[in-house]
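URGENT: need a sanity check before tomorrow's submission.

F., can you look over the Outer membrane protein record below? I want to be sure the sequence and structure line up before it goes out.
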Amino acid sequence: MRFKFNLITLSLLAISGAITGSAMAADFGVNKANTSTVNQQVFQCKRCPQVAGYTGTIGVNAAYIDSDDIHSGNAFGTDNDGADGSVDADLHYRNTAGYKAKFQAHQLGLDNGFAHLEAGKSGHYKLVADYQQLTRYRSGDARSQLWYKDGVLTPSEHTQIQELSLQRNKAGLGLSYGQDFYQAYVRYEHENKTGYQSSSIVTPRPVNFGLPVDANTDNLTAGLSLSGDSWTTNLNYFVSQYKNDVDALSLPYLYDVFAPAPDNQAHQISLSGQYQLNRTVMSGRLASGKMTQDDNLIQMSGNPLQNWDGEVDTLDGKLSVTSLLSNKLRLGGSVDYSKRDNKGSVWEFAQYEVNGISGAFKQNIPLDTERRGFKLNASYRLSSDYRLQAGYDRKEMERSYGDREQTNDDGLWAKLNVRAMDDIKLKFKASLDNRGGSEYQTSELTSSETNPLLRKYYLADRKRTAFEAKFNHTPTSRLSVDMTARYAKDDYNETQLGLTESEDYGYDINLGLQLNAHLSGYAFAGQQWIDAAQAGSQGFSSPDWFDDVEDEFINLGAGFNYSGLLEDRLSLGGDYLFANSTSNTLVTYDVTTPQGDYTSFNHSLKLHANYALSEEMALKLAYQYERYYDTDYAQIDVNTVPGLTTLGSLNHNYNAHQVMLSFSYQLR
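Structure tokens as predicted:
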């Protein structure tokens, strides 16, 4: 973009006038320029005008849904079969004194929607209020033989239909105030979670049932931020309280058969900051926290505890340094530390074991963890078209009373960014990781139940190799292409029983099209494969059976938008998405036997037409279709397996439709 000299004069004049005590070296400096003939109105911002008053849009939606499965509510925003309505909004207010406000809403009135309000004065204070409702539907026809009411699970001779879904209602209120170098803020959030989720008990045979959920979580955050010419710092305090309004569940003939999630609290105070010294930037964070839980315990014979005096102290810290040593070389590094200190009470009493009660007295063990991390990295610009980065990462982890006391993860990585031509960008990354540590031996806590050859995958020795390549090409202003390919292999070379190997590889392709001034489109495709192998022992000795798990995921999509129809009043658009996932398991024990598979796929189609009635009013007609199917071999009917009562097969197979008419009004 080319500018006339008068614009440059204005910019430099504004800069020099803002620096008190500065002096220009000679009379021909720009502060002596004659600007009396400059029309300064010409250079006002045209793309971001500061309009006083109300602006934005508000809309109302009326929709009709045709579906026989509540799972479609995850796509449509509500499980209501039939008519429903909602509100959308994006409103702004501003006046010449610096006061401004904003209100946004999306699908407000449905089971999944939100509203956001903020108001304040620029550079002084801001008030924020939020409301959000989130609902996740699993099944509307679970068949339960245990019915919950007033803390009691009542057995039923016949199965009853029960809905499995969880609804979260969140509300928040925040205030920030500050000027120049400081800012203080406080925010309160409340969440109520209700609904039913699948669970199970033994009474005396296994029975699946709908577990009631009714819990409240309160969060409070307060802090103070300070800043200077080359530094910033932030002091923050956070407290969270969880309260479960569902007490222990009972049967009509047996009390306290199911323990609820206990009430608990968490507190944390943190101090963070950043300082810049010439071309070096240093940042750090230190946080100290405490988690407590002292809810009542279900009383059992031989247990002397009335409640659990649980307490866990946490300590986290991190220090990072980055320095630009030259125009080509940048070095960086960081050190971080995290400790989890379990200070819960320790008691001796008879404890249950997998093979019954031994009668021996044992202590409950407070598990502690301690982690230390180190990172070093360097970035070197070989030329304007090539940049090379490399680094070394190390993580040291210590666990008390675990199968392995200490593990060390070491990783080397390198990246190469290439700009081959003005419209082509290439990025490559390769990494090597190795996990080792102290001697692996079965924990004393589980030595009677665990095969000494078994290795847990997150503790076992592992070698990982990973590669990634990205390609970006913009051959014309109308077309862009992005491609990514990745591969990773994990080799658990010291494992005889457990996960022995896994591979994860895939690709993503994205296309962006702008065919002309009115027609644009996009398309994408992606696939991922995860293959894993593990070994087991039926005879509690060396490996005698093996299984291979093959997971595959695919995503395909395309869309378009066509505007400029009917004298720029009408625009059309559409989006299509296909998603598919499969999981196959083969078990080899003398002979290879395929286990049941898991498969799911989803077709989603959205079409819309926008018509401008006037400069302020518009209509939108939208249609959405969803085809969803899944099948899981683990889902079985209520009494398929003798001695086991399930909630029935919770698989889905449905077609669902939604038609929506929207009216919007634009404030000017």
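My own read: Residues 563 and 571 are 4 Å apart (CA to CA). The chain is about 5% helix and 65% strand. If you see anything odd, call me.
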